[in-house]
Structures are given as structure tokens and as C-alpha cells.
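User: Some background: our group keeps a shared notebook of sequences we're curious about, and every so often someone picks one and asks for a predicted structure to add to the entry. Today it's my turn. The entry only has the sequence so far, pasted here. Could you supply the structure so I can complete it?
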Amino acid sequence: MTAVPRHPFACIVLAAGAGTRFGGPKAEALLASGERFLDVVVGLASECGASPVVAVVPPGTRNVADGVRVIHNANAIGEQIASLRLGLAELDGEGAEGVLVWPVDHPLVRVESALAVVDAFRRTHAAVVVPTFGGRRGHPGFFARETWVELMTIDQGGAREVIARYASRVTAVPVDDAGILRDIDTRADIPHDDGWRTTDALT
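Assistant: Of course. Here's the predicted structure to add to the notebook entry:
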């Protein structure tokens, strides 16, 4: 019998946006290495032990990795919380104790940073865990299952407002990884070197 991992957790990859400033959906965008944003983030989520990995993507997104649960969100200009809710609904019957929430436009995060976030939840049982670099909060964040009702029902402010509500139970995890802050918002933000996933902190 396969052992059940301690504190099992899932990951929701938020990739359904239209990418208006980018010039197209970021789910299909490519890094300088030729790797697709979506494939990189899904791979990192799997590498750090998330199961299942749920990708919320636009209709027509091609060739998502085997084993990834694909949810389509046709409202590309909607609020990101709508995609998060679609992912949470998919996880409703799962035994996950929490979920990594990973925007697809943050593919430069090192797997060690995501692992540090998960480990902090396992050690502290915090309601929310966020990585920080230079005192600034980044992605991916971790939301314990107890926060999911608020995430599903909050009227305004989305996940940020939920974090604010749990302010006394938010754990910040400093990481040596500027990638947690690297929101690729336009094509000019894509790094043009091949060392973006090295063990050295990005500058």
C-alpha cells in the first residue's frame, strides 16, 4: 500500500488570464529557454510534491502535462479569484490540508522557495504562508483548508482580503530568491539569459 504523505497539499496554477499587457495569454507564453510558462510552473509544483496539481486555463490551451487536472475558465478578463474558486471547487472532495496558489506569470520561482513555504505550513500550521524577499511578499502563497470558505465567498478584495483577515496567523518565510517577486507582466520582463533557474538568487 502506498504511504499517504504527511500533510498532503495541492497546487492551483492560475493561468486563465487574457494577458492584455503581455499581448496574449501567459499560459502559452515562452521563456527565453523555449519552455512554456505553464509547463514550468506545473513542473515546479509537481517537483515540490503537490498532488493534485490543478491548472485553471483558457479554453483551447494545448498539451497540458499528464496527471494535471485542467479546468477551463472562459472569462479571461474576470477577477483572478474566480479562477481560484474553480480550482478550489475541484479540490473539494480531496484530502489536501492546504493549497499552493501559483500564478502562471511567476515561473522564475525556485523549487526550494516553494518547498520552504510548504515546510513552514507543516511546522507552524499557519492559516496562510507567504514567501518574502527583501521584506516584500511574493508567490506562491499557501492557504490552509480552513481559509477556503472565505476564499470561496468573500465579496471584495479576493485573496488579499482573506490574508488580511487572518493577519495574526500569517507566516512569512524569507527566501533568497528574487523570483518570487518576478511578475512577468510584459514581454520585456522575460529574462534573456539561460541561468534563470540556477541556485543563485536573481538580481
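Suggested note for the entry: The helical segments are 37-47, 80-90, 111-124, 148-153, 158-165. The mean pLDDT is 88.
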